[in-house]
Design a protein that fits this description.
Blueprint: H1 2-22, E1 36-43, E2 46-52, E3 61-65, E4 73-74, E5 85-91, E6 94-99, E7 102-106, E8 114-115, E9 126-132, E10 135-140, E11 143-148, H2 149-156
Antiparallel strand pairs: 1-2, 2-3, 3-4, 5-6, 6-7, 7-8, 9-10, 10-11
């Protein structure tokens, strides 16, 4: 009898879970479409989407929405023209973008960007990065690279 009661409650729980998911309808925004969205990042009320292309001869970029994805604006000033953005990291007022051309930083919500690749050996490919404490860490094909955020403050003056 206990087994039947347990099976009944488990079955009801599973059915309720599916019925809740059936009401969700994850609606496409008016944002970047048709290409690969590599990453999303949130900074305050700003939503950033990084895009790449499926075709080798086309490139993506960065887009910003200030209205929950209703409208999008390209925010690529200071980035190379032939760019794919693979990863985004936000730390305070810093926004970092990992691209096929290296690591870039913006301190004004993507309005302008500058390269922050100092210390990386030539031919280094960054595959991922994160901010921890006062440091930006990058996983590369040559190991882990660390850049103190305080160095970025000095370079930004």
């Amino acid at each position: 009898m206990r087994i039947r009661v347990a099976i009944f409650f488990i079955s009801v729980g599973i059915l309720l879970s599916f019925s809740q998911w059936s009401d969700i309808q994850w609606v496409q925004t008016s944002g970047p479409k048709g290409d690969v969205i590599h990453a999303l990042a949130v900074s305050g009320n700003n939503l950033f989407a990084s895009m790449g292309h499926r075709e080798a001869d086309k490139y993506g970029g960065l887009f910003l929405s200030k209205d929950n994805g209703e409208s999008w604006t390209a925010v690529n000033s200071g980035l190379p023209k032939k760019i794919d953005v693979y990863c985004l990291v936000v730390s305070g007022t810093y926004l970092f973008a990992n691209t096929n051309e290296g690591v870039f930083m913006s301190t004004n919500n993507g309005t302008s960007w500058r390269a922050v690749n100092s210390g990386l050996p030539e031919g280094t490919s960054v595959s991922c990065f994160a901010v921890s404490g006062e440091n930006l860490f990058a996983g590369t094909n040559k190991g882990v690279w660390r850049l103190p955020l305080s160095d970025l403050l000095i370079e930004n003056r």
